[in-house]
Amino acid sequence: MFDVIIAGCGPTGAMLAAELRLHDVRVLVVEKETEPTAFVRIVSLHMRSLELMAMRGLLDRLLERGRQRSVGGIFAAISKPAPEGLDSAYAYLLGIPQPVIEHQLEAHATALGAQVRRGGAVVAFEQDDAGVTVELADGERLRSRYLVGCDGARSTVRKLLGVGFPGEPARTETLMGELKVSVPQEEIAARMAEIHQTDRRFMMRPFGEGVYSVVVPAGEVSDRAEPPTLEDFKQQLYAMAGTDFGVHSPRWLSRFGDATRLAEHYRVGRVLLAGDAAHIHPPIGGQGLNLGLQDAVNLGWKLAAQIRGWAPETLLDTYQDERHPVAADVLDNTRAQTQLLSTEPGPQAVRRLLTELMDFDEVNRYLIEKITAIGIRYDFGAGPDLLGRRLRDIDLKQGRIYDRLHQGRGLVLDRTERLTVNGWSDRVDLIADPTAALDVPAILLRPDGHVAWIGEHQQDLDDHLARWFGKTAN
């Protein structure tokens, strides 16, 4: 019997498996595809996701395989420079092939002891008070204490669970791919600038060696499940730009719609949802993969605590309480960005106004923090502004604080040198460091890096340790 079965071995599922294994939870990941993703799609890891990778000791290996670029201009493709002094030690985007992320996260999970079984689609399940019986496509039945659906936008787990997925269906289709071109970059830039005077839905961004990321409105689509062809791209580029730019040798081609939906519930009994199984939206702003990774890190330690037996009664419920509003906000900002790309006079007028407003640093900074998820603040009750927010990677007497979060445990950073974590030391670490780059006496960090307490008194700390990490071990 497994503790957790995860349906889907994309970035969300692999990250969740690794988070659970940090707490010695028995994990099986079942993936319907027999082979990992083959097409080389470049995605962007945002600041918050880069912080999470640093917290788990994964960032260096990703930096070696990606390309850093500015966070400026990512809201609705409005060209503005990145604000100075963003509150992160990783104030950039990392463009990286999606298969690389998936491979690195799966390797990380399996190195920690997770089992991954490919070619094993979940087709049915039944849950009871003690666990979940999961049936695979080949008829095999497996037993686990919990099941988590990380199986994408068409999630079988969500459908079988009967959870509503309200929102808006796709109204427009867009082609996206990576192709080589046969014309100079200057010609592409000039044509794109001309088109952007009236239509922002067209984009060609160079990756080097003649390869471009191409985004162009689709034509009539008879079958959305059918992948687009090179000829489809040529036709739509010609319709939009009067030339197909000599595109050839595609790395990958796909289409996406602007469907926007959010699951009504992230948990029903012993079955949970994460990533695209819980929320879908247009890819503008590049938030989807990042949102799923952040779901996984929020859920992992809480589900592990439930399984290990020390979770406070309502801890697992905080997964939906915290992440559902975050996803709702992402859906709203992608709706807004999509409207700002419209060619209609009204949205274009709003875009011009917002472009002016983004010249104010506060506005530009707010939108960048929203897209990159470093502006999130969970509601932990009244307290200083830092309470409920993630802590940036600060300097310590020895190293940096994210280096002390690799094991997914809680952490008390004590500048007073008077506090203890007696009774919780099996799940919470203590650093006494009066030199730490922090302007409060002490903090309690959850395993996801969010500040759960600020203060200096032992009894107050003990109360918050109990709130987040359960009863003492002795």
From TrEMBL:
Residues 2-334 form the FAD-binding domain. It comes from Nocardia suismassiliense. The keyword Flavoprotein applies. Keywords: FAD, Flavoprotein, Monooxygenase, Oxidoreductase. One of its GO terms (molecular function) is monooxygenase activity. It holds the Pfam family FAD_binding_3. It comes from the Bacteria. Its cofactor is FAD. This is Rifampin monooxygenase. SUPFAM superfamilies: FAD/NAD(P)-binding domain. InterPro entries: FAD-bd, FAD/NAD-bd_sf, RIFMO-like. The gene is rox.
